[in-house]
Amino acid sequence: MKKLFAFITIVLMIIANVWYSFLTVKGVIHPTLMTWVIFIIAASLSFATYLSSEKHNLLNNICNTGDVFLVLAVTVVIICFGKDVRYRVNIFESLCLFLSLVIFIFWKITKSPVLSNILVQAIMVMAYFPTFYHLWSASETSESPIAWGFSCFYALTGLITGILGKDRLAIIYSARSLAMMSIMLYLILRI
Question: What pTM does this model have?
Fold first, then answer.
């Protein structure tokens, strides 16, 4: 059953990210680049700390495993093909990047992958804030409800995979993903 949910998760992730990339290339949506840059850095750090924890299984943590590769691909698409992309970094984004570095150093010094992984999840929550703020005050959406809807479903199936694997870090990652993506979808749909 776990393999089935992991497979469904990957399929949904690919659909969501390919659709999001397509809309970015077409100029239909205008993603906030720094949200994605912070997210790829944090997802990679989350993945590295997860792999160094005692209990790790790529299938259990399928959302984090897939995010490392798919979010990198979307970030490259935004940089190469995005329309109206803002490249400068504001103070909040700098803070997120700095805190990611602090967590990395903390992890290397303390050799505590579980606590470091949980701290990374806080950065990943913060990474959504620029887009949340933009959507809250927007009169038209710059995001895709279809892509974020698929994202909510893959976070849910990823959460089920983590639960079936009895893997608390995988559960935390997927639950955080589901919560943030649900808020994102709500903000998109309310416009």
Answer: 0.95
pLDDT tens-digit map of 41-65: 999 999 999 999 999 999 999 999 9
Question: Residues 6 or more apart from 154 whose CB is under 8 A from it?
Answer: 8, 9, 12, 13, 16, 63, 66
Indicate the DSSP class of residue 142. S
Per DSSP, 191 falls in state -
pLDDT tier for residue 87 given thresholds of 50, 70 and 90? confident
First to last CA, the chain: 38
Nearest to 131 by CA among 72, 68, 186: 186
Task: Tell how far CA 26 is from the center of its chain.
Answer: 22
Alpha carbon distances (Å) from 77 to 52, 154, 163, 164, 187? 30, 21, 32, 34, 23
Angle of the 113-137 helix axis to the 168-190 helix axis, nearest 10: 0
